[in-house]
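hey so u asked for the seq, here:
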Amino acid sequence: MKINSIGFFVSGQKSQNYNLLNSENSSSQNNKFIRKHPDILNQLLVNYIPHVSFTAKKFTPLSIKDLPCPCCGKLMIPMDVVNKELTEQVLSGTSRIAVRALKQFEKYMHGVEKTCFARIEEASRKSPRKSLQEILQGLRQESLKTLEPHQMAILEQVDKTGEALSPASKRKLNSLTAEARKLIKESSSVTYDPMTIDDEAENLVIFRRKIFLHKIADWVENLPEQDKAVGAEIFKAAQKLKTAKDDPDALIVKYSGVVTRKVEGQYVTMLRTSYEIGQRLILPAVSTFEHVRPKSDGGSKELRNGLAECFGCNNARGGMPLEQWVKLHPEMEDNYQYYIDTIISLINSNTLHMRENLHHYPRLIAETLRSESNGRIKLNITGLKPLPEAKRAFPKAVLAEA
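ran it, structure tokens below
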């Protein structure tokens, strides 16, 4: 729904509908009315703007390049910028061309992705004509060998924790870890032929962390009551297996591996594409819309409830309440201030052609953060300059889309 106008009632007058867009005939009429009834403007700004809802695409902070993430403090990059430069054509060509395109985004890459990119860049120097997909295939075996000792150590810890289980529960656990060890060993010798991979899908032997954790979770759910507490500890231990989010070798193994997707109504097993690999390296740094009060808890997509946050942090938080999230990451208190200081600086310098209602954003988001964090986050917004009189005359851009 596009909001083009607001209807309001003026005492002693007929209810009127005033266009908020820059239409040909409305601007002059609206400005005259606002000057005559300044109280109406105040009511608009205080009561209406905070509750305007919109699509994430219309949330101005998402378009700001080099905006620091309010969670981790790292610089973010708008998705539109990424898609413009890292096209499928560019990333699907030779690794020399793909690496050159990715290099301009290296400063935005998070730690795991930056390490992975450095390895790809080095391998590309030796084989510049290979694709990103082929480069990652070449790095796969070394990463598997690096991961294996860690994986075996975690499985050993799982079995050791299981010593306290009843005999029947322990036997089932040992069978699960034995199967996992076998898959880890056999995975290191698997090679993929892109031309025949779908035909060989049923015979592929691969250890997948997610599948192993699902099996452990199902096993814990069916444990007798006396083994439940130990089962919970075992699941915690199993979760320490490295993931593509926290380890470069795990990232290389995952994205050099196969994935099953539904294509034209049929499930097809295929290698991840060079385009997918290249986009994944920058994905955690892409700015996304974050609900301060989680959507799952009734949080709305409104100006007062929105933050631009990097995909990595947004994904990690999930639907956790803000107060709990901040307790886990106390450094966020300073990062929130860094985030809002940057936005205030841009508003004050008028370097962006932004909607006038963004001027009210620092106050609105400060109120929400303070409330949702139970007083823990207290932003200082005293650096925000007053809105110039010329811009206060008519809030022409309070519109948004929902």
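The two ends are 5 Å apart (CA to CA). The beta strands are 5-8, 16-19, 258-263, 266-271, 287-291, 306-310.
lmk if thats what u needed
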